[in-house]
Every structure is written in C-alpha cells, then in structure tokens.
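Exercise 7. Given the components listed, write out the predicted structure of the assembled complex. Treat all entries as one system.
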Amino acid sequence: MNTHIAVIDYGMGNLHSVASALQHVAPDAQIEVTSDVNRVREADRVLFPGVGAIRDCMAEIRRLNFDKAIADTIASGKPLLAICVGLQALMDSSEENGGVPCLGHFAGEVKGFTNSTEFRAARDEGAASGERLKVPHMGWNQVRQAKNHPLWHGIPDNSRFYFVHSYCVQSRDADVIAGACHYGIDFSAALARANVFAAQFHPEKSAEHGLQLLKNFVGWNGQP
Amino acid sequence: MALAKRIIPCLDVDNGRVVKGVQFVDIRDAGDPVEVSKKYNQQGADEITFLDITATHEARDTTVHTVEAIAAEVFIPLTVGGGIRTLDDIRRMLNAGADKVSINSAAVKNPDFVAEAAARFGSQCIVVAIDAKKVSGEGEMPRWEIFTHGGRKPTGIDAVEWAVRMVNNGAGEILLTSMDRDGTKNGFDLGVTRAIADAVPVPVIASGGVGNLQHLCDGVTQGGADAVLAASIFHFGEYSVPQAKAYMRERGIEVRL
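Answer.
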C-alpha cells in the first residue's frame, strides 16, 4: 500500500511546489492537496504548509476546522510535517498582526525580527561595518542540528536551507528544538516532538538537502 | 554562521527559448529554459529568475507551461517576471510554480498595484524590478531615474525614492537593473546599487553589466547587494556557478557551496 500524504490546503498560497517536491522524492506515494478535513484524517501522513499573514492563516484554519484535524493528527501518532507559517501556527501565539493566538502545540511565541532590540542592535552594528541585516530573512542560512532526528538522516550538520520570513519562532522549551539558526538573533529553525516535525525553512525549495528531508519524512514512522 | 549572498542566473526567455541580448539588440540563442534551469540547479545556483521578454499575449500560455515544467524539476526558488500586469497574472504564475513574481512597468503605471499584490499574496512573493539609468552629468550629485520599455522610456521618477516607495507599498525584494550597464560586461552600477541597498530594509538583487567574477564580488562588497544576478557569463560557459562561488568565498563573501 503506497503511503497517502495529505497536503493541507486552507487557501493561503501556492502548494504546487511542496506537492511536486514530495512527488519527486516519492514517485509511488499518493500526494493529495486537500481542504477536506476527512481526507486529512484518512491520510497516512500530513503536511501542514503555510504562507502569508498569520491572522488570515489562523482564521482559515479555524473556519475549515483544521485546528481540530491537526490536533487529531498529532494525537493519532501519524507523522506531521509543518513548514514555515505551519510551524508558526503550532506555537502559542504570534505577535504579527497585533497579536494572534495560535494552536498552542509548542510552547513559545512567534516574534518579529525588527521588534527585537537585540536584532536591531545587531542590524545597527552591521550597518556600520557594511553588513546589512535585511528583513525578510530571505535566502540560504545554516541550520545547526540541535538534536538527532530521523528527518536529519543523510543531511550534514550546518547545511544551508532556504528561508523567507519576517517573524521567527522563539521556543520556550529547549528540549523540542531540533534545528537552530542565527540571523541577528538566535531562533528556532525546526522543532520536533513525538510525531511532529516543524521547520521554518522551506525544504521544497532547499535543493538536495531539502529533498532529502522530505524523503526522510515520507519514510518516517513518526517515532522521534 | 550567516546568511549566504545569493547567486541568481537569469533566463531571458523569448517564445520559449533562452536568449540574451546585448543592450536588447544582439539576440543570441542560449537554449531550452527547462534544460538551462536544470543545469543551474545542478551547479548550485541559489535561485533562478525567469524573465519573459515575449511581446505577444498568446505567448503567455507558453510561459505558464515552461514555468510549470521548470517547477516540476527544479527545487530552488523561482522568480518569474515580464508582463505581470494583473492580480490574475500573479495568481497564474504562482499556481504554475513560481515562488515570486517580479513587477516592473505595471508598478510604474499604477503604484497601488504593488500594494494590492502584496496584500493578496504576501510581500514574500512580490519583487519590484527597477530599471534605472544615471541621469546626472559629470561632477553633479549622482542621480538615477526609472526607465520603462526596456530602457527606452524615461519616467522622471527618482530611482532611490521609487525603491523606498515600492517597499512601503509591500515589495519584499528589489531587483535593480542598471540599464546603462545591462549587456555591457562593465560591471554593476555600484553607485545606484549602494544608494538603494542603504535606503531600503528589504533585500536588493543587483543586476546588469556582469562581465567577470570580480563584478559579482563588487556588487556585494561595494554595492551592498544581498544577491547578484547574471545571465550571459553563465549562459555561454565563460564561468560556472561553482567558479563564481569559489571566487567569492576566497574573498571572504559568505556563499552556499
């Protein structure tokens, strides 16, 4: 039986890239982009992407009952991979759009780079030396593998992944940090607990290391 | 640990073929866009920019199919520009697999279009392309203006002010092309690159005029660019992306190897 992967579609942005990257690494898998919670419940594994403003994302997630479907997926033990705003939506809250409560699966907040005094200090210091810390944090940055995880299999530590975001995750629980990154400040590039792995970067846009991570996800049994 | 400066090969595509003109006159054929994209992906390019220079409306469908074909095989960010005039154009390109779209003349015609596009699709996928030409004379305060229609039509708009305005409207990145330099191989216009990189809080891609690897370094170190875009030096095999990265790294620039 070929694995059935549901890619959650809540109307925010283009899911073509992530679906085609999954199909590329798993030609036999059934990849289904869906906004039907029942299809998500029936899938063997779930991909939770996200792009855009968090308030709109959370509103659509709740309107389409994906908050419940995601909680059920997490409770079921099926592998779940969240990407970018998908990760941010799993946190307690985000300070984007004046403060938005999120799903609360991971303890911690999503903070704007430019709202951080430490980031602004680093940016001002950088400006003096000609190094500019632009926001969004856009491009290829190194991810330190803060713990061993099946999704890091075959990927060298400190490999570069493609990021594009203006808000970043500050985990309150150090134990769940799977990947760490630095851009003016330290932030969480990936969080993992039990059957959930959540990445700030875009594996579907991160060339061979990103494809390797997706391949690892397709073969993952959900055990850490 | 630091963010890498990006190297972006640019494909100018006319009727489904990669071409590169010298100041838009001498068009040489450089191949099939899907094959060219795959080659750059294998070489370790950090992104690919696809500029549709086809004039006719019918050819837009060809572009959508080409973008789909590239996106199915190349898993690095893809920016598509040229002829993006409506929200529907943006939606089509994003659905075809583009990660970002680059808006040029349509922004000059209607600056609110950028605001609408950013509100609808998010700033992260809205690149504003600026074609600038130096208009100040020898000994004057340097000044650059926006030109449209492949550099033929002046607008009277100050390039630096325009960049700031576009970012305020929601542009997530600026693709700056010096029309004086494009195709000349004399290097970027570092003055305008630096002026805009200093003026806006979002990343700036320098474009226009790359003739050798030192030019790429200069764009970053002197121009302050976050990314450098080049076409002909890569298309015709003068340099490969790995050569460019090795050269930049030797000179202390953070790159992804």
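Discussion: Chain B touches chain A at residues 1-6, 41, 44, 46, 71-73, 75-77, 94-99, 121-125, 172-173, 197, 201-204, 221, 224, 226-227, 256 (CB under 8 Å). Residues 59-71 of chain B form the longest helix (13 residues).
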